[in-house]
Amino acid sequence: MQRIAVVTSGGDAPGMNACIRAVYRAGVYAGVEIYGIRRGYTGMIDGDIYKIQRHDVGNIIHQGGTILGTSRSEEFKTPEGRQKAADQLFEKGIDGLILIGGDGSFKGGNYLSEETGIPIIAIPGTIDNDIAGTDFSIGFDTAVNIALESIDRIRDTAISHGRLFFVEVMGHTSSFIALEAGIAGGAAYLVLHNGHQEVEALCSHLESLFTKGKHHAIVVVAEGDHPGCSFSIAKQVSSRIKMESRVCVLGHTQRGGSPTSRDRVLAAKLGVSAVNALLNGQGGVMVGEIKREIVFQPFSDVIGKQQKTDPRMDALSRILTGF
Ligand SMILES: Nc1ncnc2c1ncn2[C@@H]1O[C@H](COP(=O)(O)OP(=O)(O)OP(=O)(O)O)[C@@H](O)[C@H]1O
Ligand SMILES: O=P(O)(O)OC[C@H]1O[C@](O)(CO)[C@@H](O)[C@@H]1O
């Protein structure tokens, strides 16, 4: 193996740059060339591939986003699109690929690997933390901390005005950010994935809190399938509870910014392990970390097997909110 390429795909996540840097450093250590693919699968199809130099990865460890850029490519979902991408990789003499992204990116990578034989090591990089085969994905810890900081700030206004706040956090198919930020932020109630049906229960819980003298509250809402869903939840609650309320959708603020130390260290471990795995002849696997051990799992055990939130965390949140 002489040339390894690295690509970031799907939503960007804080820590992706630390991972690219780790891949480069591990490549240099092992004496192989590292190539960067710009703009995810779109850039792969276009052949936007370059040899990464030392200065490219200098001073990026603390930066959010991805220096390679990323994309969501419809063309890559077709066999023809993937063939174009494969042709570009072969033309550039790429022997192995490191893919940093989420479940959708892994699906595409799996097809590419099966259709062309190119060995691929996937690294979980998404703030949603919804990927099986790893305790955490790169970016999740940072996103939770950003959401938490926002909740803490909103609490000041909630207390000062005696208001009910609905704070909506990301995670289109999962509730990991809502659960962690809700518990850490002392939320009065957590509306987890697609929880519209919970409005009745939410109203009763809030009424009981306000009857006991609470004069403000923060409800954390997971965006679920419909970003902005907290507006309709707030409307339904307001028709029943006479307290001034506001909605704050944190949105993409959670995806940007400097990665936490946890995300940087995870990115470093997974990046270096991915290079070593390719050099050891592995392919078609995702590298993750479970209970502090680096683990490799075949794509078939990971792709489409969404990680579920820990029921013990759900139970914990119910005790803490008193619900
Ligand atoms: N079924 C599929 N077949 C081939 N390629 C796919 C498939 N699903 C997704 N991809 C490719 O992977 C890209 C990224 O997927 P997606 O938009 O689902 O993000 P993701 O990797 O899951 O990241 P995030 O969790 O941040 O949204 C898609 O734009 C597409 O190019
Ligand atoms: O704005 P985009 O890039 O379509 O991504 C939105 C989605 O991506 C995620 O942030 C994951 O990266 C989801 O939580 C969110 O719903």
UniProtKB/TrEMBL annotation:
UniProt enzyme class: transferase
Location of the Phosphofructokinase domain: 3-278
Presence of the UniProt keyword Magnesium in the record: yes
Subcellular location, record wording: Cytoplasm
Residues that span the membrane, as ranges: none
Gene Ontology CC annotation, any one: 6-phosphofructokinase complex
Biological-process GO terms, alphabetical: canonical glycolysis; fructose 1,6-bisphosphate metabolic process; fructose 6-phosphate metabolic process
Entry superkingdom: Archaea
Biochemical pathway: Carbohydrate degradation; glycolysis; D-glyceraldehyde 3-phosphate and glycerone phosphate from D-glucose: step 3/4
Family matches, as InterPro entries: ATP_PFK, ATP_PFK_prok-type, PFKA_ATP_prok, Phosphofructokinase_CS, Phosphofructokinase_dom, PKF_sf
Pfam families the UniProt entry points to: PFK
Reaction(s) catalysed (UniProt annotation): beta-D-fructose 6-phosphate + ATP = beta-D-fructose 1,6-bisphosphate + ADP + H(+)
UniProt-recorded Gene Ontology molecular function terms: 6-phosphofructokinase activity; AMP binding; ATP binding; fructose-6-phosphate binding; identical protein binding; metal ion binding; monosaccharide binding
EC number: 2.7.1.11
Predominant subcellular localization, coarse grouping: cytoplasm
SUPFAM superfamilies registered for this protein in UniProt: Phosphofructokinase
Keywords carried by this UniProt record: Allosteric enzyme, ATP-binding, Cytoplasm, Glycolysis, Kinase, Magnesium, Metal-binding, Nucleotide-binding, Transferase
Names of the cofactor(s): Mg(2+)
HAMAP family xrefs: Phosphofructokinase_I_B1
UniProt cross-references to NCBIfam families, sorted A to Z: PFKA_ATP, PRK03202.1
PANTHER family named among the record's database cross-references: ATP-DEPENDENT 6-PHOSPHOFRUCTOKINASE, PHOSPHOFRUCTOKINASE
Name listed for the protein in its UniProt record: 6-phosphofructokinase
